[in-house]
Specification:
The chain has 577 residues and is of the alpha+beta class. Helix content is 34%, strand content 21%. It has 5 domains: 3-104, no CATH class; 115-195, Translation Initiation Factor Eif1 (2-Layer Sandwich); 203-278; 297-380, DNA polymerase, domain 1; 401-559, hpI Integrase, Chain A (Orthogonal Bundle). The strands form 6 sheets. Strands 9, 10, 11, 12, 13, 14 and 15 form a 7-stranded mixed β-sheet that branches.
Amino acid sequence: MIKISKIIHRNQERIKVDFPYNQSIAGQIKKISDARWSQTHRAWHIPYTKEAYNSLKSLFPELSFQKEKQESNTNEKIVSSTSAEKIASTNKVSFTQKNDIQFPKKIQKDKKEVIDSSPVSFYKKGKIYVEVIGRNIIIRLPKNKTDIAFLQTLRYSRWINHQFFWQIPNYGTNLEVIKNYLGDRIYKLTIHQQIEINNKKVQIKKIEPNQVIVIKTTTNRLKIIFGYINELSSFLKNYPFHHWNTQNKYWTIPYSEQILKEIQDKIKELNLEFLYEEEEKKEGARKITPYDTSNYKECPTEYIEKLNELRYSRNTIKTYTSLFEEFINFHNKKDITTLGQLEAVEFVRYLVSERKVSISYQNQAINAIKFYYERVLGGKRMTIYLDRPQKEQTLPTVLSKEEVQLIISKITNLKHKTMIMLTYSAGLRVSEVIQLKIQDIDSQRKQIRVEQSKGKKDRYTLLSEKILILLRKYYIKYKPTEWLFEGQTENGKVTQYSVRSLQMVLKQAVKKTNINKKVTMHTLRHSFATHLLENGTDLRYIQVLLGHQSSKTTEVYTHVTTKGFDKIKNPLDDLDI
């Protein structure tokens, strides 16, 4: 199905040419003068002129137009054509006349595009089916080299030979990436959802597209489970202390009778079915007082002003403000000036024992509370002391030099290769790469200036001879104006390259190799430091290049380096076995 419509792209009128991915069609459209691909619209587009439109029609010379009456409306409809069927895999497109250029009127025929939770009992040959079952995404589709290559870029995807389908883990943005790629070619999308009803066992329920399950948990929170309903998600984000469970795909918010009633009313307003359940309480479990949202207290103004005064980062201000608000609303029946050591300990114990938060979240909560009493109030109140949890001792994943070389060799795009090589060669964080400006590259001194990075610190790091040559080639081809690596132009303004896009570049490159390690952008930074240490670089210099405030942070690389291991003889090798 080829569809064309009028769009405004970069303040210009254009004709959007939309069709399921087909290399033959793309090759034909490239022949039209000024035909371009839009990453924003995920489609090809051509000039909004008669010449361009006539060129488009000339690509399908056997297409003929005839009048056809449909329910008192007269439309122009393209009738069947052998050549179009070969090129576009379809022969039915409908148009309406407008300003001398014909635009499509969308029709649906012999095609389903629904989200359904009922099991698929049979599969039509040549159609694409996507099923979400718990933590797995099942894809059945006709054999196509391009589609197979795409599926192989998704981490841990595998072909189940005896059942004839692809299986991909249902985590992160995998489902959205698949839906965006396959688009209108999906014949049927079936969603089965696994939900936890109580702490002892997990039941499997099928959630219809018009159903919303609300579960009151034993920790006095509401667990809201539903399919993709953007308006409902936006509504839930308005409540304080909302949380999205990435692993199990559901929202949780604090419980109160008022909130439950408001959610129920919203669900009915959206013409959805409201299903309510309550978890069974454990014997001996501590009773938790629900948040009183009718008496909701916002973070004190002086708290936010002090954070800004001390020039804390935007992310830190957002985190501290949210956590301190949660603390004062946990004790919302008490005045904020009366809160102290006992209330802080009680709140932290609640986070650990009931909310099951991570060690990092627990530490941030403690910091947020201490900030108010120690920095905002100063000497007016006593400093509170809270026990800190022991931090996990983890070691970073490190690639060998051969593995780094293999990954880089799989990247063919000049811009992508430059960004990945620069990240490794300078030991940069992903945020530092996209924030680089042209003037930060000092080719004379072979240095890269990293401004206001983590901890609001400037530093210099290495500029490789090889990366300098590559950067010059990149500059000639892409001609960046402000940022060294620029993204799309929005409202006439150049934006930075997307962090997510760069992460996907590396992910797809790793997928093309046989490397089984979990490789992220930060892995390249770890590998840079480890390889410097193995080359004999002093630990103090590595600390400066990485921008670590403490040498203890840099010392972790002494635990992952293989330097000196070749001189150690394994005792097993001495045994006569």
